[in-house]
Amino acid sequence: MMKVTMYTDGAARGNPDGPGGYGTVLSCIMKDGTEHLREYSGGYVRTTNNRMELMAAIVGFEALTKPCEVEVYSDSQYLVKAFNEHWLEGWMKKGWKRGKNEPVKNVDLWKRLLLAMEPHKVQFFWVKGHAGHPQNERCDELATTAADGAVLMVDEGLED
Q1: What is the predicted pLDDT for the residue at 18?
Q2: Contact by Cβ (8 Å): 63, 40
Q3: Is 140 a catalytic residue?
């Protein structure tokens, strides 16, 4: 099984109404030992920061064409804690409800991410800031470039 390291990031540009961008870097170690990088950027999106972090991870997983062992590095506590602290499992058991029977936000993206992750063995790691992870810095650059780009996408999950 091929090993892949994924670094994801969304840049909200300080405004929850957008524009914001998201980027993903996939780092694959090839059989000959060399590293192969693939970068994905999604343009800028009128959406919330948490949805952008989810979209960045989805873009990476949907780009993988065969089952892999994937380590995901993200500075999004929202994304990483949902997996590492069993939030997702609890949300699903409760019918995508949390706490006092409140609906879980971003269910459409969580379900899409779970589907994209299905064939892979996945671990999530929270990168506090970006210290020691220069490739995560590259994702930040990607996301910022996307946010400054000319391709506007309005997130269908936005509530009016």
Answers
A1: 63
A2: yes
A3: yes
